[in-house]
Design a protein that fits this description.
The protein is α/β, with parallel strands linked by helices. It has 19 helices and twelve strands. About 45% of the residues lie in helices and about 10% in strands. β4 and β5 form a beta hairpin.
Length: about 475
């Protein structure tokens, strides 16, 4: 065994490194024992027990420790809201030994149940067919068209307790599967569509009864409950959130009189380990020092050149002062009120593009005034237009269709404007700045951006 192998094995024995047979490399403990730990356990067990492996014997011997560590972090099973007997069947099918659980774990197991609603795509179409047969005593065909993200129900329309004067039960079921509001419209003499409030409310009431009937029926059969519980846990209950430990960080170049708290170092380490990170910390918890250290460490380690921090207009002087206090020798470029004036903007952007800065600090207003290249802006606008066109193909809701058509016209006008525009000042674009790390302070300024969907009335999402 050579020296690198000996070091890796030593770190593994200390529980700091694990060999991941899936990606065939050594990874840290926090990385290996997070993510889809159920899949990682299956792969480790398969490799360890296969009898035929491409791994070297000393490396293969480490997988026994992998298996033990992964077994210890497997998520607690989630059971259906069913009778105690069916819950017990589901627990046994998942390999859960109720006698080995602590009282707290047993309580959590029984109270943390699977939430379902009509139209969930992890439930097979045959299950919905069985439900409709039970509810309406009629044979139908249920299909899910993945490319269109749409459920279809085909069969003989019959009268039932779940229909209204204007909506039959199968139509309501199709609306429910596709999470659509079963609105009913009347056509006026001049061919205008007008919402019929009374019929729409009747259709909503009947659909609500169907949804409740589905929830009441789904977990009543033991075999079906076991099958669905296994699918749910395999697909959705296999992950462990990664716990970031930055206690090893020494932060060279920082002010030795300022010591970061453990959670701040953990935040710095998290930023360094991910392509995108949100530090949703409360006010006063030390986000400023964490982001400054993350920028400087990314720069020092060669992970990102010219980090840029974008702050509120009112906090620019404060954050700049904090930066210089924490890193007195840092080479900073800080924008002032004149930096983005008509005469100075091009000069300042040239400084960003040509300088080798440890960090650049701008305000939100200044950041938004930096233009994209015409090619990048057009590519983004065309991508949004494609999304709208795809949604229009399957839209049968007049309100949604009207909103999407309006957004499409707006985008087409934007595309035309960008195509025909000619920038006269020769200003440098965002791409030419070669900024490789962007830190946005006060992320609420970047929430609720535009999105396109056929769905309406979804809690927490505007239309």
């Amino acid at each position: 065994m050579n020296q690198p192998q000996h070091v890796a094995l030593t770190l593994h024995n200390e529980g700091l490194l694990f060999y991941d047979p899936q990606i065939q490399t050594w990874v840290t403990r926090e990385e290996y024992l997070s993510g889809n730990v159920r899949q990682k356990l299956q792969i480790a067990q398969l490799e360890y027990n296969s009898g035929v492996s491409d791994l070297e014997p000393w490396m293969l011997s480490t997988l026994d420790q992998n298996i033990q560590a992964l077994q210890a972090v497997q998520p607690l099973a989630v059971l259906p809201p069913a009778s105690p007997e069916i819950k017990a069947q589901c627990a046994i099918s998942l390999g859960v030994d109720l006698e080995q659980l602590s009282p707290a774990e047993r309580s959590k197991l029984m109270n943390n149940t699977i939430e379902v609603r009509l139209g969930m795509t992890w439930i097979a179409p045959v299950v919905y067919q069985q439900f409709i047969s039970y509810l309406l005593n009629v044979q139908v065909k249920v299909n899910y068209i993945g490319i269109a993200k749409t459920w279809t129900v085909s069969g003989k329309v019959i009268k039932s307790d779940y229909c209204t004067q204007r909506r039959d039960a199968l139509t309501l079921l199709e609306h429910g599967l596709n999470q659509k509001d079963p609105l009913v419209y009347d056509t006026t003499v001049d061919d205008q569509r007008v919402l019929n409030a009374a019929e729409s409310e009747a259709a909503r009431s009947s659909l609500g009864q169907i949804k409740q009937a589905f929830r009441d029926w789904l977990w009543t059969d033991g075999e079906r409950a076991v099958s669905l519980t296994q699918v749910y846990n395999e697909r959705f209950n296999s992950w462990q959130i990664r716990q970031y430990n930055g206690s090893h960080l020494t932060l060279p170049g920082s002010n030795p009189s300022i010591q970061l708290k453990p959670h701040q170092k953990n935040g710095v380490w998290r930023i360094l380990q991910n392509q995108a990170t949100l530090l949703a910390w409360t006010v006063g918890s030390g986000k400023t020092y964490a982001m400054i250290c993350a920028a400087m460490e990314a720069r020092r380690l060669g992970l990102a050149s010219k980090p840029m921090i974008v702050v509120l207009n009112s906090t620019l002087p404060q954050i700049s002062a904090e930066f210089r206090k924490l890193y007195p020798l840092a080479k900073l470029l800080v924008a002032d009120q004149e930096s983005f004036s008509k005469d100075q903007r091009r000069v300042f952007l040239c400084q960003i593009a040509t300088g080798d800065w440890d960090c650049i600090i701008l305000t939100h207003t200044q950041f938004f005034s930096i233009p994209l290249s015409t090619e990048a802006e057009l590519a983004h606008l065309h991508q949004e237009k494609t999304q709208i066109v795809d949604l229009l193909k399957g839209s049968d809701d007049p309100a949604s269709t009207k909103a999407l058509e309006s957004a499409k016209i707006h985008l087409e006008n934007r595309i035309l404007t960008v195509t025909q525009s000619k920038r006269k000042d020769g200003v440098i674009t965002w791409e030419q700045l070669v900024v490789k790390m962007l830190i946005l302070v006060e992320s609420q300024a970047f929430k609720n951006l535009r999105y396109y969907t056929r769905q309406r009335g979804i809690a927490g999402m505007h239309n």
